[in-house]
Amino acid sequence: MTVVDVASRKVVATIVTGGKQPRSVGFLPDGSKAYVTNETTGTVSVIDAATHTLRDTIALPAGSRPMGIAVSRDGQRVYVSNGRGGTVSVIDAAHDSVIDTVQVGVRPWGIALSSDGRWLYTANGPGNDVSVMDTRTMDVVHRIPAGRSPWGVAIRR
Question: Cα–Cα distance between 76 and 81 in angstroms, integer?
């Protein structure tokens, strides 16, 4: 992972994430930590954003291929779409540990949270749909047809 100072347009740090094929990054709202998905190793790297160092590596359940990442507005939860695993893993950001993994669809790639954090959406590529998950119950409550191989999902706030 490379850290760039956007004002000077210069690289200020390069961090080895500890995993292969880093795909996505998400920051806690206070900017203290970054979470990086590592697809082929089935892990999420936790980066100290102030010191630009690797703090921890979180192992996801067997078969996970982490792709996308979404962080709750309150910074308590980090949601990871697990591609070929067909799941979303939920990380407790206070303890940097997986607290739940939910089956959501065929190869969830893109992921996004509603502005109030109640609904989680995953773009399920080969499933040709978007899953809607209630973050309170961790149940998929709806699937929306989305054309051929949706890769991403974005929420207008």
Answer: 17
Beta strands 2-5 and 33-38 are unpaired
Chain segment 5-57, per-residue pLDDT in tens: 999 999 999 999 877 889 999 999 999 999 999 999 999 999 999 999 999 99
Would you say 124 and 106 are in contact if contact means Cβ atoms under 8 Å apart? yes
Secondary structure class of 85 (helix, strand, coil): helix
Place of tokens 């359940």: 61
Taking alpha carbons only, the member of 5, 2, 48, 51 closest to residue 28 is 48
**Fold of the 64-145 domain:** Thrombin, subunit H (2.40.10)
Residue 122 near residue 153, CB atoms below 8 Å: yes
